[in-house]
Design brief:
Layout (H helix, E strand, L loop, with lengths): L14 H10 L7 E6 L3 E6 L3 E2 L8 E5 L7 H10 L1 H9 L7 H14 L14 H7 L12 H5 L6 H22 L4 H6 L5 H14 L1 E3 L3 E3 L8 E2 L7 E5 L5 E5 L4 E2 L6 E2 L7 H8 L11 E5 L9 H7 L5 E8 L2 E5 L14 E7 L6 E7 L2 E2 L3 H10 L4 H31 L11 H33 L2 H14 L25
Parallel strand pairs: 7-11
Antiparallel strand pairs: 1-2, 3-10, 4-9, 5-6, 8-9, 12-13, 13-14, 15-16, 16-17
Helix pairs in contact: 2-3, 2-4, 4-9, 13-14
């Protein structure tokens, strides 16, 4: 079971104390203040009636000083004045030089130095020491119990959470190993737990913004604003000419005193990503929007290892709900599942002058694939067999969609039979979120299967594919038999081990 860090590892700050902290640190509450919304918890509320008709100066709701923007730059500035933290950051090496690595390690050290059982004073307190106390525990899927995670079996979120937990364990183990000789680690090592690393990851993942002109960062008070997509979004965030973070009222929007001020976390984020990163799905959501399906190269493919070595992209495909029953998809990895030696794909080993190891080189025809799967896609699209390759790709995707639907269907009965609620291992909120995700993903998969069937039939009816199938049928007449003209015949290869259908 995955649980929260032990009680007391970081103190909690009340809404009243947060407001006082913000004012002491020069946060400008122009038209918005922290508040509580039933069912959501912390929120940002209008402190007066506000409206913008699209003319004149923009309405500022909130101004956060540049020094309170928790970015890679701000962490590096703090490290210059904090010898103990600088020692940790340097011990982390390359990880400590990334925005994620620097911010997470900063959050962890700042949270730990205010613990009540700390016997030695380490690191330098900052405004963020108290800011971290205001952040509530997040119920992201990385904190779900084993029984709750079972509810996700068959969804695209299940492998994502498993992968994330493995990644977090690696980061935590690396932190403990590389920082074990630092003064900070010696002071807190007896109370340090993996669950604390889970918490700072949840803080960052659920509140980080890709802020214009700043990059990935956390912005106190602005991060109180809850999500609302589309036209329901009230506000947007920008950086002003002085580098401060500003929350502005959108054109044509208004709010009465006490009403919630909302921003968008991403209008086109898929259901899986919303639950993964923010721990919730919007009520009334009608589509999964997007989902990522992993793809694998068959073990029988003699080029499997070589293809994986040169693909240079994620081994999967992203499906996107394009509306009106249509599905868009993208992911160049699939093109390596659609070509073989018979199509002109080949691999060679070459030894470079500055290396003692052989380097894998891929070629399509006479062109070297230095750009991996993306370049292969470009080359295929310029051949006179482009419709054939597209048909192969759609057929592979349709089968993958079918397999995913089967996984969802086969686990649905167990999911529905799961006892949940008080005094059980499964919280009702987790059960309802998993139930909603499963429904949305199954509906999108059904839509994709039907649309891919339509695409297959349209491609099979093109002159290019008909000509190709006729040539294949002619080659087989003296041996295997005649082709039946079905779309599946487009996957024919000369050897059984090269059959990618």
């Amino acid at each position: 079971m995955v649980g929260h860090a032990k009680v007391g590892w970081r103190a909690q700050l009340s809404q009243e104390d947060l407001l006082l902290w913000a004012k002491l640190n020069d946060v400008g509450f122009e038209c918005a203040v922290p508040g509580i919304v039933e069912g959501k918890g912390g929120a940002l509320l209008a402190n007066q009636d506000i409206a913008r008709n699209g003319t004149g100066q923009q309405t500022q709701l909130l101004i956060v000083p540049h020094d309170l923007i928790l970015s890679l730059e701000r962490v590096q500035e703090h490290a210059k004045a904090d010898r103990d933290f600088r020692e940790v950051l340097e011990a982390l090496g390359d990880f400590g030089r990334t925005a994620r690595g620097a911010i997470l390690s900063f959050l962890l050290t700042q949270a730990s130095i205010s613990a009540s059982d700390l016997t030695e004073r380490v690191c330098v307190h900052s405004p963020f020491t108290d800011y971290i106390k205001s952040l509530p525990p997040e119920l992201l899927p990385t904190f779900w119990t084993d029984e709750e995670l079972q509810l996700l079996q068959g969804t695209t979120l299940a492998p994502a959470v498993s992968s994330k937990l493995r990644s977090l364990h690696r980061e935590y183990d690396m932190l403990c190993e590389t920082a074990k000789h630092t003064r900070w680690f010696r002071a807190i090592s007896d109370s340090l737990e993996f669950a604390q690393w889970l918490e700072v990851d949840a803080m960052y993942r659920s509140r980080a913004l890709d802020y214009p002109g700043i990059g990935h960062c956390m912005v106190p008070c602005v991060d109180l604003a809850n999500h609302c997509a589309g036209e329901s979004t009230i506000a947007l965030y920008e950086k002003d000419e002085d580098g401060n973070a500003c929350l502005l009222l959108r054109d044509g929007k208004s709010a009465r005193k006490g009403e919630e001020i909302t921003v968008t976390y991403g209008d086109h984020k898929g259901a899986c990503e919303m639950l993964f990163s923010y721990g919730f799905l919007e009520q009334g959501r009608e589509s999964a929007e997007t989902l990522f399906l992993s793809l694998s190269i068959p073990e029988t493919d003699p080029y499997r290892t070589a293809k994986l070595a040169v693909a240079d992209c994620a081994p999967g495909c992203k499906l996107v709900d394009a509306g009106k029953g249509a599905i868009d998809w993208n992911g160049d990895f699939i093109w390596f599942l659609c070509v073989s030696a018979e199509d002109g794909l080949r691999f060679e080993l070459a030894r470079t002058l500055d290396s003692k190891e052989d380097e894998m080189q891929a070629f399509f025809g006479e062109t070297e694939l230095t750009g991996g799967a993306t370049q292969l896609h470009e080359l295929l699209s310029k051949t006179n067999l482009w419709e054939v390759y597209r048909l192969r790709a759609v057929a592979v995707l349709q089968q993958r969609v079918f397999d995913q639907m089967q996984m969802l269907y086969s686990t649905q009965e167990d999911m529905e039979a799961t006892v949940h609620g008080d005094r059980t291992e499964v919280r009702t909120s987790c059960y309802e979120q998993a139930k909603q995700l499963r429904r949305l993903e199954f509906e999108l998969l059904e839509q994709a299967y039907e649309d891919f069937e339509k695409q297959k039939n349209e491609l099979a009816d093109t002159d290019c594919v008909k000509k190709y199938l006729a040539e294949v049928a002619g080659d087989e007449q003296d041996g295997v038999g005649e082709a039946d003209g079905s779309p599946e015949e487009v996957h024919h290869e000369s050897d059984a081990e090269d059959d990618f259908s």
